[in-house]
Amino acid sequence: MEPLPEDGERDWAEPGVYTVSPGVHRIPLPLPHDALRAVNVYVVTDGTRLVLVDSGWALESARERLSRGLKALGAGLGDIDEFLITHVHRDHYTLAVELRREFGGKLGLGKREEPSLVRSGDPDRFPMEAQVGLLQRCGADPVVEELAKAFGGVRHTEAHLWEQPDEWLVPGKRAIVPGREFDVVHTPGHTDGHVVFVDDEAGLVFSGDHVLPHITPSIGFQPVPTELPLSDYLDSLRLVREMPDRRMLPAHGPVTDSVHARVDELLEHHHDRLEVMGAEISADVTTAYEVALRLGWTRKQRKLPDMDPFNQMLAVLETGSHLDLLVAQGKLTSTETGGVRHYAS
Question: Which Pfam families would you find in this protein's record (predicted)?
Fold first, then answer.
């Protein structure tokens, strides 16, 4: 395997090593049964020191592909000096924990990921237990029932992969390799502690799951939910939009030339969804679940019952986050009865 130029001629998820710019290489790693297809890990090196932005999921297939990719760059798993993680989801964090145990290397994670990291490491936690509570508040008992069929009785089996980082990352400039520094920028929304890394000199932004080229990131999917994750997300998008435009290096999808162009699309998308969801509220449609049933989802405009339970959950919770933001903006009101949140215009 030899490094290939990042020329956009190949499928972004195709195995290989792709040179994004001098000293920066992209290695897509596999994901299990995941519509995201792959997760991009970025290798930043000056030939002596080697840093990874995100690490992949702790899977043997991902470890093997990363090893082959590093070999093409004249390095090995034991040569990784540091992992800088954009957020605490397992397809970004857990392989770093596994490799740190075996080979060493430091691990850095955004400071506001700490509550979710601690909760993720609780062996008594059931999968998605926080989301079940939110779904019930959305009036989505049918989705809860489908999740129970799919995941009911499954205990948390990955608690050992949620160790604490060596460093809690905070906003500001940070040395990466000799002659290169990143600006750590806090971008909450997808998760509360999500960060992006900006390389001013090279004109790059490692955007993690904050800005993705082909899909709209899920909002607030984390073990410790926040009150208004969509508000946080939109503020974070505007923050990135106020910065100089840069080449975008996402966690899922191809490298693109303009982060601004995609941010504009995402802001427009959520503006439209806020209007559409708010307009659905009536005397007969008062819950997030009822609104979600009336909408189309994904680019194919699929109906909610046609989706798998996990994506039904994401859709309903996204609807709830939009309606809650409309309440915060004074465009809707809400009341709770029997633990279910009802909205009115």
Answer: Lactamase_B (PF00753)
